[in-house]
Design a protein that fits this description.
One of its GO terms (cellular component) is outer membrane-bounded periplasmic space. The chain has about 425 residues and is an alpha/beta fold. It has helices at about 60-70, 90-95, 145-155, 205-210, 210-220, 265-270, 275-285, 285-290, 295-305, 310-320, 325-330, 330-345, 350-360, 360-370, 400-410; strands at about 10-15, 20-25, 35-40, 45-50, 75-80, 105-110, 115-120, 130-135, 160, 170-175, 180-190, 235, 240-245, 255, 415-420, 425-430. Helix 2 runs parallel beside helix 3, helix 7 (about 275-285) packs across helix 12 (about 330-345) and helix 12 packs antiparallel against helix 13 (about 350-360). The relative contact order is 0.11.
């Protein structure tokens, strides 16, 4: 398939259900890789954008997505960063710039021998007052965490989901003559409040570091907010809320994993690829009728009485997956969801598939609830314990008036002098 741009390649295609090989002449060219794969209106006033990575074209795609939602009348926004492993930091900072006022700190880097480098907003963002919710999970990393951390620390919107991955290293690539490469860590990323995004790693604990996501599952972090492990270091957002360091971004609103439909039957169906194969076979057999489905509503109405789960069970049994009625009943909704989403992607596109999945997605539904209730902007914390030391890199003068009041509650008196200590700020009376 590879070759000079503008030249042609002859492809032979064998389609399911057809014996004759079909040939096509394909013109070689640039293959666009979309980093935003879903844009739609979740409600008449709430727009939804899913970013799967941060690349060269992401910001342009983001502006186009906002323009599309603008024509449809959006007044609130959900940015979905779940499953986003990161990418270009500069792209993430450009997106944050659209939502924060002038001179707001987005992120800074600091190394052992390098000076602190700050990234701040220029004040030209067009959506500085729009209600915003950002979705993250344990696979949101790097640039995703920079975006989420900037929104959280500046109290610009709510973070919903589960603790993010915890990858915040600045690495410089060094190439060698044999083609190999060394990535040398030179600095770390820090959120505006001073939290290090990078999860801790120590000599002799490499296995624990690599198995971090597995360890989170073992101690229940995916299912209970009380099981989230942090370093214990507390930091203050600009408004005065407490946030925690120790790797990753801890969400403001925790959403546990839903494992109610997962059975060994479902796992085997998923891992073997049978769910997807059945969906593609279904589309091939019904392509002519499916071509009349122009919207998600049309497609859902067509599939409503097709008994997809029963058809799948018969298909799976023919392909070696023994029918287990109790497990099938428990996994019914999950199987139907996976199969339907695959069909929607094939017949329509990724945006409609995301819209279908999100109809029952707990994180998206919670985000919609927050926005509709007018609770997308963080509120002041409850009164803290007098004398408690709280780590923070915002100076008192940089805090909003409400934030200064929160500090007065925490320390027992309004601070007039602050003393910098290693990794902490301690307030003392004049």
């Amino acid at each position: 398939m590879k070759g000079p741009k503008g030249t042609t390649a002859c492809l032979g295609i064998k389609r399911a259900g057809k014996a004759k090989l079909q040939t096509f002449n394909i013109l070689r060219g640039d293959v666009p890789v979309k980093t935003i794969d879903a844009v739609y209106m979740a409600t008449p006033t709430i727009g939804y954008i899913r970013i799967n990575s941060f690349g060269d074209t992401t910001y342009a795609e983001f502006l186009a997505a906002l323009a599309k939602l603008q024509t449809e009348g959006f007044e609130n926004l959900i940015i979905d960063l779940r499953g986003n492993p990161g990418g270009y930091m500069e792209t993430a900072t450009k997106i944050v710039n659209d939502f924060l006022p002038k001179n707001s700190l987005i992120v800074y880097t600091k190394g052992r021998k390098s000076v602190r480098q700050e990234y701040r907003t220029d004040g030209r963002g067009a959506y500085q007052s729009m209600p915003l919710v950002v979705l993250v999970d344990e696979t949101s990393a790097s640039a995703s965490e920079i975006l989420a951390g900037a929104i959280q620390d500046n109290d610009r919107g709510m973070i919903v989901g589960r603790r993010s991955f915890g990858k915040g290293l600045v690495q410089v690539p060094i190439e060698f003559p044999d083609g190999s490469m060394l990535r040398l860590t030179t600095a770390r990323y820090y959120t505006p409040s001073g939290r290090c995004v990078q999860k801790p790693y120590k000599p002799g604990q490499e296995e624990d570091y690599e198995a971090d996501l597995i360890l989170r599952a073992e101690h229940g972090e995916y299912y209970s907010a009380d099981s989230i492990k942090t370093s214990g270091e507390q930091y203050r957002t600009r408004l005065g809320r407490i946030v925690y360091g120790g790797g990753g971004i801890v969400p403001d609103v925790f959403i546990p994993r839903d494992t109610t439909g997962i059975t060994s039957y479902f796992r085997e169906a998923y891992l073997s690829g049978m769910l997807y194969q059945f969906a593609y076979d279904f589309v091939d057999k019904n392509r002519e009728k499916l071509s009349d489905c122009k919207t998600l509503e049309d497609l859902q109405n067509f599939l409503k009485y097709k008994r997809l789960v029963e058809q799948f069970a018969q298909f799976a049994a023919k392909n070696g997956l023994k029918r287990r009625n109790l497990m099938l009943a428990r996994s019914r909704k999950l199987i139907e969801s996976y199969v339907t989403a695959t069909i929607v992607t094939d017949v329509l596109d990724d945006s409609e598939a995301a819209e279908y999945i999100n109809q029952t997605d707990p994180a998206v539904l919670r985000a919609i609830g927050l926005l509709e209730a007018g609770e997308a902007f963080p509120k002041l914390p409850e009164k803290g314990k007098p004398g408690k030391k709280v780590a923070n890199l915002f100076r008192v003068s940089q805090l909003l008036p409400q934030g200064r009041a929160a500090y007065a509650q925490t320390t027992g008196d309004a601070p007039s002098i602050y003393a910098l200590c290693p990794r902490k700020v301690r307030f003392v009376k004049a």
